[in-house]
């Protein structure tokens, strides 16, 4: 296997998603208006900031850690894919497939496998589906949302399915 290129992406919400914060702030202001104007403004601003911060702070990180980085306790020669809180060695992954928004909908709906690992955020409209080839792992595949699917596939050193 060729050495993997480093890849790191935090699945932060887009600016449009942060409009939910404004709606939450408006709802908070409406609720706080019972106690007066200053309370309404204060509650609205606090609600908007909390929702925006919550969306940003809980955004998962997708990364490919190449060889030579034993910082998280893994052997220095074991490159791995990390998506959210889960980590898998690249040796346990098979073919990769770029998935568009419609494919994500299918893989999370009618074609879903309950054993699959999914790192998904609704504001990310593309993903990569990695086949898991480790016989000891009951997980059939990983579905990892990313805004840069081709770069993620390249960083793992995998071939795209059907290529």
From TrEMBL:
Asked if the record carries the keyword Transmembrane, the reply is yes
Q: Name one Pfam family in it.
A: DUF3093
**Where are its TM segments located?**
12-31, 37-57
> Could you name the domain of life of the organism this protein comes from?
Bacteria
Record key words, sorted: Membrane, Transmembrane, Transmembrane helix
* The name this protein goes by in its record: DUF3093 domain-containing protein
Source lineage: Bacteria, Bacillati, Actinomycetota, Actinomycetes, Micrococcales
């Amino acid at each position: 296997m060729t050495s993997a290129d480093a890849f790191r992406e935090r699945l932060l919400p887009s600016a449009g998603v942060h409009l939910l914060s404004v709606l939450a702030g408006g709802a908070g202001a409406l609720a706080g208006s019972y106690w007066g104007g200053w309370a309404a403004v204060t509650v609205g601003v606090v609600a908007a900031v909390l929702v925006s911060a919550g969306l940003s702070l809980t955004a998962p990180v997708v990364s490919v850690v190449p060889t030579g980085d034993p910082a998280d306790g893994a052997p220095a020669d074991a490159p791995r894919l990390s998506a959210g809180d889960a980590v898998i060695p690249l040796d346990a992954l098979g073919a990769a497939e770029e998935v568009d928004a419609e494919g994500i909908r299918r893989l999370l709906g009618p074609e879903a496998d309950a054993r699959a690992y999914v790192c998904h955020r609704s504001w990310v409209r593309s993903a990569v589906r990695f086949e898991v080839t480790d016989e000891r792992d009951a997980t059939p595949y990983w579905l990892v949302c990313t805004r840069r699917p081709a770069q993620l596939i390249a960083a793992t050193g995998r071939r795209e399915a059907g290529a």
